[in-house]
Amino acid sequence: MTEKQNGWSDAESARYRAVGHWEGVTFGARLRRAGTEGGDRAALVDGDRRWTYADLDTEADRVAHGLRGLGVERGDRVVVQLPNCAEFVLVWFGLQRLGAVPVHAMPGHRRREIGHLVRVSGAVACVVPDRHARFDHRELMREVRAEQGPGGSLRTVVVVGDPGSESGFVPFEALRAAPPSVPGRTAPDARPAPGADDGGADSADVALLLLSGGTTGLPKLIPRTHDDYAYNARACAGVCALDERTVYLAVLPVGFNFTFACPGVLGTLMAGGTVVIAPDPSPQTAFALVEREGVTLTSLTPPLVTHWVDEAASGSWDLGSLSVVQVGGARLPEEHARKLGPALGATVQQVFGMAEGLINLTRLDDPEDLVCATQGRPISPDDEILVVDTDGRPVPDGTAGELLTRGPYTLRGYYRADEHNRTAFTPDGYYRTGDVVRRLPTGHLVVVGRIKDQINRGGEKVAAVEVEEQLLTHPAITAAALVGVPDERWGERTVAFVVCDGEAPGVREVAAHLRERGLAGYKSPDEVVRVAGLPLTAVGKIDKAALARASLRP
């Protein structure tokens, strides 16, 4: 059985449908229509491999057929942990064709995170590479399966590459080798039976599960329906003026909400354009693809900006096709924003959004000051925004306060997290983002900071509580506090203040310890500082503001 978890009232749902935000079409059906109408237009490019829209539609059938043979059914959850490769897109649409639910994991996640995602989602399968960035994901999956035990939900691991000899590990190519077949469709050119485009899914069903930043430790799961997520991608595509001539370069991890649907991969495909996969985010790799494929749009995080500006200054690349460069995931310093556009000969677009929903974009015709000094305004006329003080009272424009939001693509509840939902949302359905912003009279938002104890390191969200808990498992550390401090490259870097019994461990030793504990590498502190004790506030809590100030002293 699938889960309908949209949380919107009947009146809201009816209004969003009446104004055309929600179209009542599943992703499986959208691809079927694109495969029929788009025909031989280029849809997806990965190195020398290319798929037209018709090819992509057929591949989705093949993958769906293979997954069904492994016992994956409508409503089943499948964790997808793949690096930037076409297989992510093929698996994603294959799951949509079944009415199954992909759970977007990041390539850097390790045993702790993947095990958590499997447990919370009840995933029946995982899709991983054999090796990526010198890490063996097959060994990771062996550990996850061993931790889960024989009574766990996880039955199958699909491996892109060599699956090895482990029982229950299936090569991805075995799925694609199956004939393209869905109920009522025995050949690629046969008309599918009703419901065959999506396994009988409904547009109000959960279509995918994204990950929160994990402000209280491990990430929460964010349910996105076919209706709301398609609108998310489509509305972003409209603001960015995407059409059949658009060529989008996926530089950041394809599983990120930013890369996938803001407008990203989905928005481009829904507009009839072409998605090009970059295997890594280096400017050399990306610029070569811009030249070769005529890329018009791409998305970056702030740490990449200076590298791209420096490489463009070499004058070795023809970037004439590049029209728009989005920057999001963390706040872009104004001075960097002013350099990026002239360096690449493109329009800069700032993006401030969240996997939970609300997306803000600067407009392509905004004045330079708004583009460089704000993080955009909401993409939908039905995005509802409140900026409130600590007592929940709205503050005037220009005054900093916490951002609350609700609307046609912002969740009304995390997946299977009733207790957390009671505090994450107001009684009337506004999501408490934890972001501190100032709203200008134009509606543009300026991000000031965060209420939540979360560190944004170049777009990667690090939950301080989770890392602190694991630091305390080190035999020499008796107390620990993780804080974020400003950093020109990353936006914020992580500093661990530790109280020790004996000799304090260094950065490398701490990183090795956290890796052994199963944490992703990006969560390891950038700096470890030994202190005699941790300062406390008047109410007895660790004074992280004081620690952050101390870390900035010369």
TrEMBL record:
<dbReference type="InterPro" id="IPR045851">
    <property type="entry name" value="AMP-bd_C_sf"/>
</dbReference>
<dbReference type="InterPro" id="IPR025110">
    <property type="entry name" value="AMP-bd_C"/>
</dbReference>
<feature type="region of interest" description="Disordered">
    <location>
        <begin position="180"/>
        <end position="200"/>
    </location>
</feature>
<dbReference type="GO" id="GO:0016878">
    <property type="term" value="F:acid-thiol ligase activity"/>
</dbReference>
<dbReference type="InterPro" id="IPR050237">
    <property type="entry name" value="ATP-dep_AMP-bd_enzyme"/>
</dbReference>
<keyword id="KW-0067">ATP-binding</keyword>
<keyword id="KW-0436">Ligase</keyword>
<dbReference type="InterPro" id="IPR000873">
    <property type="entry name" value="AMP-dep_synth/lig_dom"/>
</dbReference>
<protein>
    <submittedName>
        <fullName>(2,3-dihydroxybenzoyl)adenylate synthase</fullName>
    </submittedName>
</protein>
<feature type="domain" description="AMP-dependent synthetase/ligase">
    <location>
        <begin position="33"/>
        <end position="415"/>
    </location>
</feature>
<keyword id="KW-0547">Nucleotide-binding</keyword>
<feature type="domain" description="AMP-binding enzyme C-terminal">
    <location>
        <begin position="466"/>
        <end position="541"/>
    </location>
</feature>
<dbReference type="Pfam" id="PF13193">
    <property type="entry name" value="AMP-binding_C"/>
</dbReference>
<feature type="compositionally biased region" description="Low complexity">
    <location>
        <begin position="183"/>
        <end position="200"/>
    </location>
</feature>
<dbReference type="GO" id="GO:0005524">
    <property type="term" value="F:ATP binding"/>
</dbReference>
<dbReference type="InterPro" id="IPR020845">
    <property type="entry name" value="AMP-binding_CS"/>
</dbReference>
<dbReference type="Pfam" id="PF00501">
    <property type="entry name" value="AMP-binding"/>
</dbReference>
